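Lecture notes, continued. The same structure-token format from the folding unit now serves as the input rather than the output. Read the line below as a description of shape only.
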């Protein structure tokens, strides 16, 4: 079995341009379905979730070409409205294809995306939004089917600012007749990028980044092809900042908007790191000889709150902080699966429901570790960088969903990190 080996105790040093954002590229790829022509997505990260999305697009009838980090999708040949189970299961976020397939073909079908490693991941808000746009939604044992002769613009009020449901509603509404208003929309930067791309495709969308998004639909006319460059991944950047906080040293990360990182950089600064940011660059420095300090409670929340995706990596860095730090995970029910692994390294963490209390220990020691989910897996790498000895991390398929080259990036930052098959 393949493992990522990390030798801890070396300060991180160096500069790195952060990969394109997974959570941005997935809805952008889904959006290409809305055009009759060719769309180009640049700075596309090489992730297994991206490969799975491209497989879905090809299955639906699109022509997909890859050249370097650019992907071109020609959705003019779109002919299939059903996504088979095997493809649905290969990617958890595949429900994002529902809205655009419905918009283009008037019908879309798929099996349920199913549970996931973060706990049950319902899609009720996605389906409610599509039915508000006039789609009939039928649910059976073998999956669900959405059908609409013509989508009609409407007011959609989301009970939770779900990122995926906001994106699905935006995508479907571009083809509706009349105006759609999405209230309590998610405000994540990835939604702003989706709006920019849809506009480049000729759609009339406004308000992304605020709680109210307005879409004036085309009444069924497909959009034209568009172009976009995927923004830097704020969660990957947060992971590497947490890694430098855990290991000490100084890193400079490029290609991410520092403002998107402020909830994370504020916590790391409170823990005793020196952080300087501006433009598309963020620098974090930590004196490896001085321990981190415990921080005030970290509560995960929708953007612009502290991102749930950064909870595990930041928790890993605070395992050796002086004092006790509390985490409250408000977004997903099973997002503490990294904690048992961190305990194998000597971490002292207690959990009760949504709350985890990390009592800082003097040092972590190396261990054989198993990644159970994407960000929890990355958190193990963060912990290993600050630990004594050489750790092995298994379950890399989870990490590859969101990190194009974790070992390579860490090596570029002076870490000793490499991949091997188990002996
Ligand atoms: C997206 C991100 C994921 C991140 C999450 C929260 C992508 C591809 N993934 O996931 O990395 O952790 O946002 O920032 O962008 N909910 C419902 N019903 C629904 C939909 C969601 O109850 O129909 C609930 C979820 O269970 C969760 C909350 O809403 O408790 C937020 O989930 P949501 O924002 O939808 O997350 P995703 O879009 O799946």
């Amino acid at each position: 079995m393949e493992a990522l080996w990390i030798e801890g105790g070396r300060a991180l040093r160096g500069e790195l341009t952060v990969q394109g954002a997974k959570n941005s590229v997935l809805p952008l790829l889904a959006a290409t379905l809305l055009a009759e022509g060719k769309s180009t997505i640049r700075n596309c990260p090489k992730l297994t979730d991206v490969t799975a999305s491209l497989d879905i697009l090809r299955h639906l009838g699109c022509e997909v070409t890859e050249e370097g980090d650019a992907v071109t999708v020609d959705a003019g040949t779109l002919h299939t409205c059903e996504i088979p189970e095997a493809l649905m299961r290969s990617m958890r976020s595949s429900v994002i294809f529902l809205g655009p397939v419905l918009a283009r073909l008037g019908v879309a079908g798929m099996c349920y995306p199913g549970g996931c490693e973060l706990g049950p991941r319902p899609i009720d808000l996605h389906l409610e939004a599509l039915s508000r746009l006039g789609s009939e939604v039928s649910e059976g044992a073998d999956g669900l089917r959405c059908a609409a002769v013509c989508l009609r613009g409407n007011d959609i009020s989301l009970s939770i600012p779900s990122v995926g449901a906001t994106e699905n509603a935006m995508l479907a509404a571009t083809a509706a007749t009349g105006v759609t208003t999405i209230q309590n929309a998610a405000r994540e930067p990835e939604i702003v990028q989706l709006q920019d791309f849809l506009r480049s495709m000729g759609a009339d969308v406004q308000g992304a980044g605020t709680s109210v998004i307005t879409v004036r639909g085309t009444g069924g006319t497909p959009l034209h092809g568009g172009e976009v460059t995927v923004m830097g991944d704020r969660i990957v950047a947060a992971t590497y900042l947490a890694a430098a906080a855990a290991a000490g040293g100084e890193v400079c990360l490029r290609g991410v908007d520092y403002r998107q990182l402020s909830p994370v950089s504020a916590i790391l600064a409170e823990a005793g790191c020196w952080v300087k940011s501006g433009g598309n660059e963020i620098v974090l420095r930590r004196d490896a000889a001085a321990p981190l300090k415990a921080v005030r409670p970290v509560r995960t929340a929708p953007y612009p709150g502290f991102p749930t995706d950064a909870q595990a990596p930041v928790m890993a860095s605070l395992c050796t902080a002086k004092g006790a730090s509390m985490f409250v995970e408000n977004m997903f029910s099973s997002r503490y699966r990294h904690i048992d692994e961190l305990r194998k390294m000597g971490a002292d963490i207690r959990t009760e429901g949504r709350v985890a209390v990390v009592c800082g220990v003097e040092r972590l020691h190396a261990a054989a570790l198993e990644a159970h989910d994407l960000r929890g897996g990355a958190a193990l790498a963060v912990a290993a960088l600050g630990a004594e000895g050489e750790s092995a991390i298994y379950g890399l398929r989870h990490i590859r969903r969101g990190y194009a080259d974790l070992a390579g990036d860490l090596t570029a930052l002076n870490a000793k990190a490499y991949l091997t098959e188990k002996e």
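Point for the exam: The chain has a mean pLDDT of 95.
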